[in-house]
């Protein structure tokens, strides 16, 4: 019984996307693909403990799901095409080679992350159809009602059908932009886990970061030569490696400089560094995720915070600003510059960004101001900046840390 349950859980992680993708290609309907896959796994839960785990779980699940899908189409004659049904029945016992299935999964990912869908819909659809998460699991992850997630998924599938969004890998000319959209979805999922925005949830959501890493590994495996897919995976691994040290026993966020580096996950760091080196050796100009991964590699390479090569960090941010001149990248560059040239220089760069409306409601901007003002011994201004940051921060661990830093100023007078 235990072995069967373990096998079902493993099959769900490894085979869900394959089964859904195979059915989506064959039947051209995401609803049918999702429902039939779910039925196949439900049957496995009933039969595998009694009958034993099949030699090829993925093939068993795919075949069972195909039969369930055909049964449904037979019941819904209005949705059936008799010629297509005949082809399906004739091919019922055939299983596609691994390469074709991998192509199907890639098609499924691009369909779920199509730019015609809202970002919220893309995330929900990807987690459901590619990740295999249930609607309640997705709802808990993003702190919204189950009905809201269900409606997002339903509307997204309806839009795909109504707009006749093709179930295919984009043409070579469109591929870079579309891959970028897929990676953006996965990075948003990871970031929600890395620093959860809700006040009533754990400050760090390991379930979401783990799922984002799993799906990014899938994209990397399917597109091994894509530098940005490699870069995003490296970035996630190097960031996730620090998770055990990011929140203290008091529930407060622990800044990078104060973290216990012995608690970092050495295996994730080694893998992340290997991927960063792999991209450097490719001799191709790095993209945004590759540069962010390289910055994190510098941080995780330092045995102590005082050993950090901040000059190299600034140089990497200089490259990143040219690729992505966003105010948040400029803010992070200013933080690095402050470590090289001092807090006064860093604060001048931060203050120069104050006019940008994108930063007015960004708590990290005000927190950065507060820390630099603190270092410059300007407590009154620092206290005001802490207050602004605390009012905007939604993460409980971050609020705890910022509040303590502000209160220390009060005690110092």
From TrEMBL:
Recorded superkingdom: Bacteria
Domain RNA polymerase sigma-70 region per the UniProt entry, residue ranges: 15-77
Residue stretches making up the RNA polymerase sigma factor 70 region 4 type domain: 109-160
Molecular-function annotations in GO: DNA binding; sigma factor activity
GO process annotations (BP): DNA-templated transcription initiation
Ranges for domain DUF6596: 178-278
PANTHER family for the chain: BLL6612 PROTEIN, BLL6612 PROTEIN-RELATED
Keywords attached to this entry: Sigma factor, Transcription, Transcription regulation
Family membership noted in the UniProt record: Belongs to the sigma-70 factor family. ECF subfamily.
Record-given protein name: RNA polymerase sigma factor
